[in-house]
Amino acid sequence: MGMKHILVASDLTDRSERALGRALQLTSPSGRLTLLHVVTGGLPEDVRIEQERTAGAFIGRRLESVPAAQRANCDSVITAGCVFSTIIAEAVGRNAELIVIGKAGIHPYAELFTGTTAERVVRFSDRPVLTVKQPANGPYRRILSAFDGSEGAVRALRMALVLAPDAEVRVVHAWRHPHVSLGEIEAARKVIDDENERLRTLIREAAKQATVQSNTSAKVTIDLVENNPYLVIANETSSADLLVMGTHSKGCLASTVSIGALARHLLIEATCDVLTSRP
Fold first, then answer.
1. What is the pLDDT of residues 16-36, one digit of tens each?
2. What string of H, E and C letters represents the secondary structure of the chain?
3. Are residues 224 and 118 in the same domain?
4. Domain end point (choices 89, 111, 136)
5. Number of neighbours of residue 257 by Cβ within 10 angstroms
6. Separation between Cα atoms, residue 158 and residue 171, nearest integer Å
7. CB-CB contact of 88 with 43 (8 Å)
8. Is the Cβ–Cβ distance between 269 and 256 less than 8 Å?
């Protein structure tokens, strides 16, 4: 099982090379892979033409090294414009199921990530986005799903199970205990227990649908943890090779106006690859 059409956004750096390697591994034998490079818009025409020519030659040489069986299903697109919006538009226009990008440049503060091409693609794309940080040394084996009950988290989990149907998947929902008076503890606990049961049902249903789609039996475990969500997920990523989470939700991983502080920190700080999805 693999993806039918993946779009890889390349900036011609080593980061993009890792993204291409992972995309090739995820594409099905009969699937298509589009390698896209966007030259920044607004350049003088002669500069734009030269940059497009150079990028086209570079990508052409790179695709020549792709195994012949896959090369026939690969194409490249060199164009100019607003980088992040062009990536999203090309994915929609070509009906790509997944956008694959390399990790953003390293910044000392998460706030500096806001406004980068990677952040904007993650924030605005209606397609799941895979941010690749590590070389593709085999299929994903250990997946960590940071689950907040949002539609984006459900969609990301389903996509992860399609990408890695034989992986071990650990779904973790972490929350802080609400500050309530002594007399309200029992009622608060009842609300938490009811919400946790709802989340278990959501997770099981998402796993069921994904395993039917990928025709495999996923190995999914569910952990509901009462602790600081950031600390829980950050500690768990060291043993995962793919972190999965939703964005643009009203859950604790995101908000309706940005990808959310917690999701942004995890996207930057996780050493493993990260799969994100909007509702």
1. 999 999 999 999 888 899 999
2. CCEEEEEEECCCCHHHHHHHHHHHHHEEEEEEEEEEEEEECCCCHHHHHHHHHHHHHHHHHHHHCCCHHHHCCEEEEEEEECHHHHHHHHHHHCCCCEEEEECCCCCCCHHHHCCCHHHHHHHHCCCCEEEECCCCCCCCCEEEEECCCCHHHHHHHHHHHHHCCCCEEEEEEEECCCCCCHHHHHHHHHHHHHHHHHHHHHHHHHHHHHHHHHCCCCEEEEEEEECCHHHHHHHHHHHCCEEEEECCCCCCCCCCCCCCHHHHHHHHHCCCEEEEECC
3. no
4. 136
5. 8
6. 12
7. no
8. no
Domains identified in the chain, total number: 2
Residue-wise pLDDT tens digits, 173-188: 887 766 656 566 677 7
* 103/167 same-domain check: no
Q: Which domain holds residue 148?
A: 139-279
User: How far lies 120's CA from each of 164, 192, 197, 199, 264, in Å?
Assistant: 26, 34, 34, 29, 11
What angle, rounded to 10 degrees, do the helices at 151-163 and 185-214 form? 40
Q: What is the value of pTM for the model shown? A: 0.86
Residue ending a domain, among 136, 165, 194, is 136
Q: What are phi and psi of 188, to 5 degrees?
A: -65, -40
